[in-house]
Amino acid sequence: MRMAEPASTPPPTLDTIDLYDPQRYVDSSQHGAWRLLRDQAPIWAQQTPDGSTFWSVTRYDDVTAVLLDDENYGSEHGTILAVTGGDPAGGRTINLMDRPRHTRVRQPTIPLMSMHAARRHAPRVRDRIRRIVRDRLAAGGVTDWTELTLALPMVAAGDVIGIPESAWSDVSRWAMAGVAPDDPAYATGSASATLHRAHLELFTVLNEVIRDRHRRPQDDVVSELLHLDVGGRRLDQQEVLLNCYSFVMGAVTTTPQVAAHLVLALAERPEAWHTVRARPDLVPRAVEEALRWASPTNHLLRRTLAPVRLGEVDLGPGELVAAWIGAANRDERIFTDPYRFDPARTINPHLAFGVGVHRCIGAPPAQSVLRILLAEMIGQLDGFEVAGPVVHLRSNFINGITQLPIDCRPVPARQAGVLV
After folding, report:
1. Phi, psi for 162 (deg, rounded to 5)
2. Quick one: which of 202, 198, 222 has its CA closest to 212?
3. What is the pLDDT of residues 187-245, one digit of tens each?
4. Structural domain range at position 266
5. Bridge partners of residue 410, in order along the sequence
6. Which whole-number Å values give the CA distances from 15 to 12, 45, 88, in the listed order?
7. How far is CA 9 from the centre of its chain?
8. Residue 398 lies in a domain
9. CATH number of the domain encompassing residue 159
10. How many domains is the chain built from?
11. Distance between CA atoms of residues 212 and 229, nearest Å
């Protein structure tokens, strides 16, 4: 989705807002619509093309309240607008579970994804990113950064999950096809055919890993899932497979999108790039600002489990509520000058990883790999600029970029270094 400030586009009216249509996330920005909803209709109903009604919350406090309240808002029905009729994996994967079952799957895997673990893996991750950046940028000229960024999630989490390096490229690409099966960058036919192919390819790789870990357990998520005790029993083979798929999708749908939006934001704002280059200590803050700015997950869906009062609206059980992360991360009530990309922003309680019991378990490795990438860029690039059309992902769920041509100017070899 384009990051245009609302003032730079014609103001919408409530009757023209459509938060469902994936094409609007390709052609334009929803920030004007989100700001109007925050101001005039913070609890807002819309119908999907199949007639399902969902309620949108766009203010930071309301989004936070919905995501924190897992007693009244459940995840098992589905967590994205694409499956308003119900997700067939509901109750069987970590992202589609409610407590206490969710806790039994999440808790044992947290140490593998912790910041401590990310620091332990950082030297290996840094070496891989250094090779990727140098291979693509050493000669300068135009390169498509989406090809580079698509490699990042498996660099950050491939070993941790248990995916063999030989499969990283295919896994990332098919995972994105599973998220946006009708986007031209990933489609291999109709949306249903693409989705079927993506699942087939991913499940083939994951089943091979699962079979190997049955014989040779390792210190990774797949091995942990195979030996997990969930209420006195082990996960069955299908549940292990679906949860492996969930961990892969969680990695692929966040890190590369933030990295692409970070590069685009810095390319369009040379002064911000010069600020970060002059002050490498700002790298962690710049990454957090990129997470707020990109908000890689536009929304998270919940279903009411009991009667609730949401703002001034009373909802009964079974209502669908879309918490718009991208809108919350631009809320003027929370963020000063929210439509400015500020790499030195100090107060930044963004919700890019969600909040509450379902906060993204892969946040630490994602933050680590993004910091390493930006530090490597500082050491290897003198500057860069957009060199052609930027194409955005056709998805109301993931705020992605599928084409980002960047003209890079490498630092002279005698000056190049890594500021990590």
Report:
1. 120, 15
2. 222
3. 999 999 999 999 999 999 999 999 999 999 999 999 999 998 887 888 899 999 999 99
4. 6-410
5. 381
6. 8, 11, 33
7. 26
8. yes
9. 1.10.630.10
10. 1
11. 20
